[in-house]
Amino acid sequence: MKTNNLGYPRIGSNRELKKASELYWAGKISADELIDAGKEIRLKNWKLQAEAGVDLIPSNDFSFYDQVLDLTLAVGAIPTRYHELAKSNSSLDLYFAMARGAQKNGQDVVAMEMTKWFDTNYHYIVPEFTKNQKFALFSEKIINEFKEAKALGIVTKPVLIGPVSYLLLGKEKEEGFERIDLIDALLPVYFEILEKLQSENAEYIQLDEPFLALNLNDKERNTFTKVYNEINKRFPKIKIVLANYFDCFGENLTTALALPVDTFHLDLVRCPSQLDDILESGQLNPGTNLSLGVVDGRNIWKNDFTKSLELIQKATAVLGENRIFVAPSCSLIHSPCDLDLETNNETLTPEIKQWLAFAKQKINEIVVLKKFASKEVDIKLSAEYERNVVANNNRKTSKLIHNNEVKARVSNITASDDKRKSTFATRRTSQIDALNLPLFPTTTIGSFPQTAEVRSWRAKFKKGELTTQQYNDLIEKETEATIRFQEETGIDVLVHGEFERNDMVEYFGEQLAGFTFTKNGWVQSYGSRCVKPPVIYGDVSRPNPMTVKWSQYAQSLTPKWVKGMLTGPVTILQWSFVRNDQPRSETCTQIALAIRDEVVDLEKAGIKIIQIDEPAIREGLPLRKEEWATYLDWAVKAFRISASGVNDDTQIHTHMCYSEFNDIIQNIADMDADVITIECSRSQMELLDAFADFKYPNEIGPGVYDIHSPRVPSSEEMVQLLEKAAAVIPVDQLWVNPDCGLKTRHWDETKKALIEMVAAAQEMRAAVENIVSL
Ligand code: GLN
Ligand code: ZN
């Protein structure tokens, strides 16, 4: 039996890589210093795993930005716009230009596109392919890192994305071909890499093919067969570990099991049932090994040794110990680095901490699981096993987790709880009477600039350098100034500006029971950007109102409507580490009830318009289409529960951004928000087609300018976009607003842009009046 790790976090336990990369980009350290910082992280990671006793230690899991981009460079799929850079500059600058764009010395190239890595919050750089795409070995990073580890006496298992998944991850940049057909051009480069690794005496090579967990067509499936047979024919001595993760093999199982590889890696956290399927199928080639992904690579909970051992023993009973590897479910880049660094006993209490494991602890888990399963250590005599049982039992019964009131409330939800009192048509009449808004009402998405100053108040408040009173006074002043600014600009529906919020999920998590936070639980999101998701460990409830005070204060300053601003249940769930002892849908429903209470309290406090943001609703979609309906069902229901406690004349808004809406438009309509504001300007209102074709019944605010750019749009541009919108959506259904929140912008741009936006709305109103008077 062996232990097999699929990848280790490369950001460094203290985000060393982030710090070094950002210094390099700012011109403050040299390329050599950055390269050294990377090297140091790799050496630490390898040593840590070697000392822990991992048998198959990955290499090439390190990356200065993204592993897909690394491979793009390795196979030389460099888009034409970077060819000049490829000739003249250092390879590091070429690499970062592809990742982030480059604007210097008269050069101006845009970055490659970035998108989410399957259903994680990691983002990769999308390969760009053309019809006559050529591939040629361009970077030897894979081989160099193997040699680097070997020089330390560690023979690693190089990890690279498999050729089929690599092609499928990319995009066709011109018409007239399918990227999967590039396989014959691509394979020779893989052969060259394998050849070089073989001559350096690499024994195992891991090829990640997570597309095996997705719905594939016949051609894609056949390509797997062809590719792995060819690899096997040319390199019969190399042991290929074919890694699939994030879901079951599903209908690809038979194809997969016929592939001539040394080892299949299975994600038994996401799909425990596939172990039985494989063992019972009798289709596993004699001699092929199974790598059992029993330790969750994507969440932070301590492994349940008893459960994992059951799975491992089931496999050893059929295949024998020698054919079994013990592994995390996927690469550990989706886990924070090291629980030992969590030393703040107040936020992360010792009781909760004993339920957790980060990457370093997960490495230890696979090692001890192997020792237990191979009987190298007798579990009956092991204190570590005992501690694991105690911790897991404690978690099951802990008072911290279970709140019977919350459970009762969830089980008593009735069919009317997720429905507004009346249909949209009836609500609309009440809202028109109650709100008295003009045609093309203007609003914003919630946040106004979070300046360095505002952030410094929060930092000082946290350090105790500002009293609560002083901090609140500062936030009140900023809020008041923002209300005055919106009044002067002539915006119709105001917001308070969200200055009191650090982050749209953390702010709520900090006030909800059942949540806790880590000090250093960072996970890479993209490039140097890391996120620190809250931890939902127990039943969620809302001890006190969370936003009412601020909304009420803002509303007291003005006769105009101030919109209350909340984060929705699905987004809170999606951007947290979620407990794994009950279905996600259950946790989401608990959050929904907490948000519902807040919505009702806002209404009671005189807030007539309330926005519940759900930018992450699409991110939660399962990888396999056949599972979409179940997810959408509970996700939409959770939103509706949160929104349905109010009267007809209270207007509920939602906001979503940067996603495709076409294939879930029915579900968006089912959310039944009175108004939805969406991102639209970058696609020149193309996104709106989905809403128009569908005849979306409620009101819509298609974003009229891109808040990600400091550029100030003119009112003419916005009028043009609004005219496009008005051509497909009835004008009395349209709102006018930016794409998303303004927190990342500066005040001067924001002022100029909103003045233009209001002018655009006025022009549209005048145009409609003209038509009416004709
Ligand atoms: N209300 C939030 C804001 O304005 C919405 C942010 C988002 O969509 N991600 O910042
Ligand atoms: Zn947004």
TrEMBL record:
<dbReference type="GO" id="GO:0008270">
    <property type="term" value="F:zinc ion binding"/>
</dbReference>
<feature type="domain" description="Cobalamin-independent methionine synthase MetE N-terminal">
    <location>
        <begin position="3"/>
        <end position="317"/>
    </location>
</feature>
<feature type="binding site">
    <location>
        <position position="655"/>
    </location>
    <ligand>
        <name>Zn(2+) 1</name>
    </ligand>
</feature>
<feature type="domain" description="Cobalamin-independent methionine synthase MetE C-terminal/archaeal">
    <location>
        <begin position="440"/>
        <end position="762"/>
    </location>
</feature>
<keyword id="KW-0677">Repeat</keyword>
<feature type="binding site">
    <location>
        <position position="575"/>
    </location>
    <ligand>
        <name>5-methyltetrahydropteroyltri-L-glutamate</name>
    </ligand>
</feature>
<feature type="binding site">
    <location>
        <position position="619"/>
    </location>
    <ligand>
        <name>5-methyltetrahydropteroyltri-L-glutamate</name>
    </ligand>
</feature>
<feature type="binding site">
    <location>
        <position position="498"/>
    </location>
    <ligand>
        <name>L-methionine</name>
    </ligand>
</feature>
<feature type="binding site">
    <location>
        <position position="657"/>
    </location>
    <ligand>
        <name>Zn(2+) 1</name>
    </ligand>
</feature>
<feature type="binding site">
    <location>
        <begin position="445"/>
        <end position="447"/>
    </location>
    <ligand>
        <name>L-homocysteine</name>
    </ligand>
</feature>
<feature type="binding site">
    <location>
        <position position="657"/>
    </location>
    <ligand>
        <name>Zn(2+)</name>
    </ligand>
</feature>
<feature type="binding site">
    <location>
        <begin position="529"/>
        <end position="530"/>
    </location>
    <ligand>
        <name>5-methyltetrahydropteroyltri-L-glutamate</name>
    </ligand>
</feature>
<keyword id="KW-0808">Transferase</keyword>
<feature type="binding site">
    <location>
        <begin position="445"/>
        <end position="447"/>
    </location>
    <ligand>
        <name>L-methionine</name>
    </ligand>
</feature>
<feature type="binding site">
    <location>
        <position position="679"/>
    </location>
    <ligand>
        <name>Zn(2+)</name>
    </ligand>
</feature>
<keyword id="KW-0489">Methyltransferase</keyword>
<dbReference type="Pfam" id="PF01717">
    <property type="entry name" value="Meth_synt_2"/>
</dbReference>
<dbReference type="InterPro" id="IPR038071">
    <property type="entry name" value="UROD/MetE-like_sf"/>
</dbReference>
<feature type="binding site">
    <location>
        <position position="121"/>
    </location>
    <ligand>
        <name>5-methyltetrahydropteroyltri-L-glutamate</name>
    </ligand>
</feature>
<dbReference type="Pfam" id="PF08267">
    <property type="entry name" value="Meth_synt_1"/>
</dbReference>
<dbReference type="GO" id="GO:0003871">
    <property type="term" value="F:5-methyltetrahydropteroyltriglutamate-homocysteine S-methyltransferase activity"/>
</dbReference>
<protein>
    <recommendedName>
        <fullName>5-methyltetrahydropteroyltriglutamate--homocysteine methyltransferase</fullName>
        <ecNumber>2.1.1.14</ecNumber>
    </recommendedName>
</protein>
<feature type="binding site">
    <location>
        <position position="116"/>
    </location>
    <ligand>
        <name>5-methyltetrahydropteroyltri-L-glutamate</name>
    </ligand>
</feature>
<keyword id="KW-0862">Zinc</keyword>
<keyword id="KW-0486">Methionine biosynthesis</keyword>
<feature type="binding site">
    <location>
        <position position="679"/>
    </location>
    <ligand>
        <name>Zn(2+) 1</name>
    </ligand>
</feature>
<dbReference type="InterPro" id="IPR002629">
    <property type="entry name" value="Met_Synth_C/arc"/>
</dbReference>
<dbReference type="GO" id="GO:0032259">
    <property type="term" value="P:methylation"/>
</dbReference>
<dbReference type="GO" id="GO:0071265">
    <property type="term" value="P:L-methionine biosynthetic process"/>
</dbReference>
<keyword id="KW-0028">Amino-acid biosynthesis</keyword>
<feature type="binding site">
    <location>
        <position position="498"/>
    </location>
    <ligand>
        <name>L-homocysteine</name>
    </ligand>
</feature>
<feature type="active site" description="Proton donor">
    <location>
        <position position="708"/>
    </location>
</feature>
<feature type="binding site">
    <location>
        <position position="740"/>
    </location>
    <ligand>
        <name>Zn(2+)</name>
    </ligand>
</feature>
<dbReference type="InterPro" id="IPR013215">
    <property type="entry name" value="Cbl-indep_Met_Synth_N"/>
</dbReference>
<feature type="binding site">
    <location>
        <position position="18"/>
    </location>
    <ligand>
        <name>5-methyltetrahydropteroyltri-L-glutamate</name>
    </ligand>
</feature>
<dbReference type="InterPro" id="IPR006276">
    <property type="entry name" value="Cobalamin-indep_Met_synthase"/>
</dbReference>
<feature type="binding site">
    <location>
        <position position="613"/>
    </location>
    <ligand>
        <name>L-methionine</name>
    </ligand>
</feature>
<feature type="binding site">
    <location>
        <position position="655"/>
    </location>
    <ligand>
        <name>Zn(2+)</name>
    </ligand>
</feature>
<feature type="binding site">
    <location>
        <position position="670"/>
    </location>
    <ligand>
        <name>Zn(2+) 1</name>
    </ligand>
</feature>
<keyword id="KW-0479">Metal-binding</keyword>
<feature type="binding site">
    <location>
        <position position="740"/>
    </location>
    <ligand>
        <name>Zn(2+) 1</name>
    </ligand>
</feature>
<feature type="binding site">
    <location>
        <begin position="15"/>
        <end position="18"/>
    </location>
    <ligand>
        <name>5-methyltetrahydropteroyltri-L-glutamate</name>
    </ligand>
</feature>
